[in-house]
Amino acid sequence: MIIDVKNMKGEKVKEVELPASIFEAPILVDLMHQAYVRQLANARVGTHETKTRHEVAGGGRKPFKQKGTGRARQGSIRAAQWKGGGRVHTPHMRDYTQAMPRKMRRAALRSALSVKASDAQIVVVDELKLDAPKTKLMAAALTKLVGTDTALVLVPDMESTADVVRATNNLPDAKILLANYLNIRDLLKYDKVVLPLAAIDTIASYLG
Q: Which residues face 14 on adjacent strands?
């Protein structure tokens, strides 16, 4: 796939061929959905906790005798039907982690990148560089590159693009991300993917 390469002013400077194995891969919707659900599940902390009747303090004795009172028999004032008693069928701490083989996860990423490429939602820039680490400059550059769409900006490393990282962090409709941290959730969340040439090599190193 041949795609235009732009500079930070939104001007075309040359063309580049994107790796077909990554950007023209088979689009597997079910696999993308599985990877997306897995990532959301793995992000859950699972620390919610409620106490059962065995964990609530108190209630060590029988509240009243078994017979002769005319009331229903009770064994503890910490049973679920009593005020201050334990809870039934409520959340408890658990691990929501879902396993997924690495090959499947990477196939899902290739599918998502192929969807973005087929919909012309990938913007390749020659170099991510600003005159100063100012949010105003980055906002103006993204407006020229992606218009009013939200943008996922991939960088090859944080050191060489420190000014861009700092300027992008304050933008509500854009996110900066290391290319080797690419994930299905961010790919599907943002409208456009801003991809510098150096980041293409990083992605190709583990997805190609």
A: 5
